[in-house]
Amino acid sequence: MVTHSVCLEVAPICRAEAKDRQLKLARRRKTAKAPLGIASPKNRTANANSHTHCPSGLLTTTHITMKMTRENPNVKTLYRNCLTLATTLATVATLMLAPTAPTLAQTDGQKPALVVSIASTDTLLGDINYLTKAAGAPELGGFINLMAGQYIGGLDTTKPSGIYINIVGNAPVGVAFVAVSDFDQVVTKIEDSVGELEDVGGGVRKLSLQRDIFIKSQGGWAFISDSTANLKGLPEDPTKMLGGLNEQYNIGIRVGMQSIPQELRQMALSEIKKGFEQAMASQAAGEDEQELQENLGRQSIESLERFMAEADEVTVGWGVDQADGKTYLDFSVTALDGSKLAKQVATSTSAKSDFSGFLLPNAAATLHVTSLVTGQDKTQALEMLKVLRTSAAEEIDKDDDIPNEQVRKLAKEFVESMVDILAATLETGRVNGGAAVLLDSDAVQFVAGGYVADGRAVEAELKKLVKLAKEADAGAELDNITFNAAKHNDVDLHTFTVPIPEDERDARRVLGDRLNVVVGTGKTAAYVAFGKDCTELLKKVIDDSAAAETSGPPIALTVSLGNILQFASTFQTEPIVAAMASALQEADGKDKISITGEAIDRGIRYRVEVGEAVLSLIGKVAQMQSGANEF
To answer: Which among 97, 128, 367, 559 has most CB atoms closer than 10 A?
Structure first.
């Protein structure tokens, strides 16, 4: 039998106990043939001089790894961190499977309270290679693959692994599983690392560390738990327990809210309420403000209580899409079928949008929001407006730049009126609007707008604002304001300009000598835009919105780093800015960071995406900083 040496091992969870077991194991093996994967002392010397005898190339891998570690302090630190992480994950897994009294047999037919899914080793290592290459550090991916090669012997690298846990008697009970191609080789590696496994019958091996851990091989899978009772009636295909997470994500976590006992949910809620009451008791706010904060806090707790009662699943997952050149992180929530929460989510995510024109394809940043706000969410939002109204009035009272009480009074009236408009809009239950920023080497443009209950009231308040500015002796430059300067698709356009100081050279370069501003008011819409040709930009947004009325996503935020850095490089002389802009010059649309909300069955999913060009940028910045630190 060919043997080979594994020179580097994951630090044992319990070093003292593992050392004792290894000594006993070594004594037992003195006269025995070394098992597969572990070289006897005699064979270690032979193998050290003959790498070709190592079928998996682990000895060569180990030699390269140790050399890299000695010569590169950054790799050395990474290696230590990987060992620490491996030990930590092993400890966490042990604690998660800690309870010994209850068993999974008591939860037949119940959806798991927690599922953790980990993609196959081949998928993980392939995506790590892709990400590190995209980040300009392919050697790091190679290093990780080299290290991983030492610990995956005997595993089936084509299948996922995972953990499924339930709550029995208010304690977590679960099973971890991993696909194996050679269980004996896996056992040997475990014994060489942390101690001998005891055969307790029924195909079950026991590992005694800080607590007993039981391992059973069945149907090409190794199942691990803290109780032999949990290793009975095991599923033929444990991947079905993952609920498809393994097909969507590299790493996925799903919580089954209704599988968490009501008692535990109430205990958690009681602790939250207790913390809130203590916070309120220590507040030094005024009576009115404290009442508003208490109302807001209690409504938040009521919303959380309803969520705990009506939510079905909460999922967090990380994945990689090499074909589209991005990595992403998802957060999703689903509600119980037929629940009020399910109906509310369905209602809020089915809203039509009248402002999708803000999703300009060449913009440096775009934002689009569309949702229907009902029930408790509406009440909570209105309470927040009350807090805003109070705090704004307090800030006006504290502002020493306000010249007199008459102006102070007008300022409060303006704020009151604008909050009233916002409150009236929220009362309709509709939230819809957007914004966009466009950057060029010699121009900056901004446009924003959205639905309001009464756009004509906004126009009236704008006129009050001009009056307020003149009362404050700041309105001399506003004499050129023109109300109803033009009309476009039933939207009245009001224009004015503001001078830009001569010493603000960069601002004058991209905005001109005067800042052009246009405000649009319609029957149920309000807009504002500024910058060069801002009126034409606003007209384009209005036209595009009218031509593409759709049921847009609840939220869509996109930022193009390439566009932003290219613009910044025209002003900055720092080499790092130019280098960052250059790194994204050929990004081909993969320089974006985005956050989107999407309706799913009985729920909603939010996704954060990062393009591979952003990863490349991060890698280049890290390399530049590392190079700078050497001097």
So the answer is: 97
